[in-house]
Amino acid sequence: MTIQEILNKGTDEQKKALFLFNSKDSDEAVRVKFNLWARYSLPKYFTSKDAPFHKDIDLNLIASYRGRLKSFTNIGFRGCGKTARTKLFIAFTILNDEDKTKKYIKILSVDITNSKQIVTDIYNILISSRDLYPDIFQKSDLKREETMSSFTTYTGIKVIADTVGTEQRGALQNEARPDLIIGEDIETRKTLRSAVITKMIWDNIEEARTSLSKDGSMIINANYLSERGNVHKLVEKRNTLNKVLIIPILDESGNSTWPDRFTIEDIEQMKIDDDDFAGERMCKPSASNDILFNREKLEAMKSIKPIKESSGFKIFYKFDPSHRIASGHDVAGGVGLDSSTSVFIDFDTIPARVVATYKDNTIKPDIFGYEIERQSNLYGGNLVAIEKNNHGHTTIAICKQLGVNQYFTQPKDTKIEGTENKEYGWLTNGLTKPKMLFGLKKAIDDGLLELTDEDLINEAKSYSRDDLMDKDTDPRLTTRHFDLLMAAAIAWQMKDWVEVKQSYDYDVEPEVTHSLINI
What we know:
With 519 residues, the protein is α/β, with parallel strands linked by helices.
């Protein structure tokens, strides 16, 4: 009998023989069996012909299930069917894997309601197949429509719902660790707006991963909404054992990747209707409204290697005494989290350019004051703007003692006679932060500034509008840091204040100049 004849007229045992698989079957054979079973058992899921990328999804699901991949991150456009296909695949393996390769499957999502619904959907798929697999739930007589958090089959396979907001250590089922974790929508635009939540989710994902059995694996279905979140981290960590599949709705030639489901006319309408077509449908957060700085401008910038590096201070261009140079400095606590940074800008080149940078996450705020003096001396005692938030006050005090040429403001309050009425340093707050970052953005967009340093350019590429709005200040809760970028933004604000330093006679003591810049 042909396959079609078996499906139409064959016995239950003959039909099951088409679907059952074990470790001796190849991945391609399992894929064919999966597609036969799914279309025979649940034709309502297949209203359109499969796209070519569905084969890639299936083969990666199989490789993950068999433990050859430690993780498979499926970043498909919204509407590509990644969630439905994963639910079908899990139900297929529960029913048809003769080896019972996975016995403890955990479903994780940001929203527990979503996780429970997926568990319920898998349960209902199993129930709908009871004519062919009558022993799957021997004690159940009716299809359960309510949302459930877990179930266990008669064959001992458990499926459980949980959230990525729950600590994952210590999860055991009959003395066994989870051997398959399914992550569904592990981050949303809401979670992306909080560094606290984003960091917590990543920690829990890591706990879930490390709590897996020896041959366990993770399958994550996600949307690529931002470069500031955990999905971007997964993309950056991809390798031969951690596969990432990115599926946009349009290919590089502008053709629909699922033409039987979405026509070009459908996609054009999505461009009009969607708030974030680039992120949701093209899986390109770099092209979406989420990114603050113009990616094309940044891609066009050429980074260069420093001509000299002195104790972490990268010098890209030699000091020119006739030019106006200013520096911005972001001060950290020096405990290995965020970094203390310096960015020096020469305003008299066309375009202006970053000439030197510094970054260190262990230097203490007081020692950083001495480091800033050293750096400033290498550029002729330039104008120095130190962020005075938090640890910056200590650094400013040291620089004041050392006579560093610091940026200051003159308060409007009535001056008390005999006191110095200057406020040193740059204050970053809800008013000045957008001003300085959008000022830097305009300079880049208008071609007025070259960032020079590859690390600085990469920070600008990743910075998003959500980062701009983020109110979390504890560096322990931040997944990414933009310390060089903040220093650059402060330095750019000095364009209206910096002057050529006139008090230094470079012609009389040229040897001193060479000694200072150490070049």
